[in-house]
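Regression check, L-rhamnitol case 416:
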Amino acid sequence: MTRYESAKEIYAKYGIDTDAAIAKCKEIPVTLHCWQGDDVIGFDHDGGLTGGIQTTGNYPGKARNPEELLADMDKAMSLMPGTKKVNVHACYAIFEEGEFADRDALEPKHFQKWVDFAKERGMGIDFNPTFFSHPKVKDGLTLSSPDEETRKFWVEHGKACIRIANYFAEETGIPCVMNIWIGDGFKDVPADRMGPRMRYKQSIDEILSEPYDIAKVKPCVESKVFGIGVEAYTAGSAEFTLSYAAMNKDKCLPLMDNGHYHPTEVVSDKIPALLTFFPEVALHVTRGIRWDSDHVVVLDDETKEIAQEIVRCDALDRVYIALDFFDASINRISAWVTGFRSMQKALLNALCTPSAAMKELQDSAQFSRKMVMMEDCKMLPIGDVWAEYCRQCGVDADNYYDEIEKYENEVLLKRV
Ligand code: RNT
Ligand code: ZN
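Current build output:
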């Protein structure tokens, strides 16, 4: 008997069909963000990263141009099991030699190389307007700016991005999740909290007045509690974005990034709360250490619990799962692969959990038995199911770093 066969028998005693879990896991799209590959810089500006987010570290070999970034993504994806979608930020427009378009004038053609890349690999594309790292961010503000020219510029950027998101959906045949996140806020106690929020609301209204079909383009609003340099106040707070999404349910989705809440709040608990009201919700899965640090996702308790909730709520088709982390202190390809695999492990683990049985124990108030079963589940041989999943997907279950190290020596370290 192989280890997988033995695991299969053990899970069967809990009523779990591991073959079905593996088959299901293969179909769940997880969106891989392009920005881990170059520390959230992109191709349309020379300056550094702004907006209250930060990459730290100076590991050698980061991608310096579109060719390198796409090659690195390819290398990373070759080591990942499962269905991938790619997440592109507007600042990753790929221009022809001598060509340039500012953010308010971006067109679908500036993203044609991304479409080619995605189509060749049978992937969909998600998209993000880039409201940071640009000279038109005025006094730290974009869509909430009191300066009308500034606000308008960023509204035009948002509208351009809707058109590009539509192009992605049309070309790939897969809906495009388009996430609006702004870093607008204040370092110190504001004298006016409502003004920026009223302007932000008006700006999102204006962006979403651009025609689109919600079946194809799925605009999201992502909240945030604070950023570096905007510790006292953010315009797009949790209450603001959630209310906006709730009041505009037919036009957009709420997006929760699990680094964007107070440290004892958990997104896993918010998922069923939102699913009670929204047809669809979107996630950025990340790992914050003490702050919104965007460490690489690992198989920790909260990542597992996020996956558990999506599966328990039978909401795999209602929750868009995207990754959002950026670590510049380690091999960036390894960061991508480890983060993606961790999310996949969490999903496979959730699919191999006897949730229905435990729900019954809860509903019949058998809490002691439920606790015992939950603890027993932690010792089930998920590693053997994972190994079989990886085998079926044609990737190694472990030791993938050897391959990355080879690429580092042969490719990354030559980038000087
Ligand atoms: C920032 C948000 C946002 C960004 C990306 C790059 O705190 O999480 O989603 O990380 O848009
Ligand atoms: Zn995010």
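Comparison notes: The mean pLDDT is 98. Residues 222, 257, 284, 324 surround zinc ion (ligand 2) (CB under 6 Å). No diff flagged against the previous build.
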